[in-house]
Amino acid sequence: MHKAILTLNKVKQMSKDIDLQTAMIAALDEYGYEKKLSTDLEQARNKQQMSKYLKSLDYSLRRLLILQEAVNDLVEEEKRFQAQQENIQTYKTKIINLSRQYNTSYQEILEIMARQGQK
């Protein structure tokens, strides 16, 4: 009889655990759904969504102009960074091609270039 009571208590506890787990999953699902529908800039993936978010800020023209200037600066900075990364990759590719052409290592090409630069 004692074993049956213990087993019944375990079943009740498992049922509570499953109910709690189900409730947590439902809450997380609901949170994810609401987050998708929110006007959060982090969730914005296109111009329409970003515009909706910016309108929700209710900024004055002055603040919008400042925001525009900040965004333009950030875009220019990112463009420069991307161009720099492309130049670095092109430079590395040229060194790799030289090392293949002269049947030497990448490091040796760099050392030769460094010596030439010192002269």
Give a short overview:
The protein has 119 residues and is mainly alpha-helical. It has four helices and no strands.
Characterise this structure.
The protein is 85% helix and 0% strand. The chain has 4 helices and no strands. The longest helix is centred in the C-terminal third of the chain and has 41 residues, at 61-101. The radius of gyration is 31 Å and the shape is flat. The model has no long low-confidence stretch (mean pLDDT 83).
What topology does this entry show?
Layout: H1 2-37, H2 47-57, H3 61-101, H4 106-118
Contiguous uncertain segments of 5+ residues: none
The whole-number mean of residue pLDDT values reads: 83
| Oligomeric state, counting identical vs distinct chains | single chain
Shape: flat
Distance between the termini: 96 Å
* Biggest sheet details: none
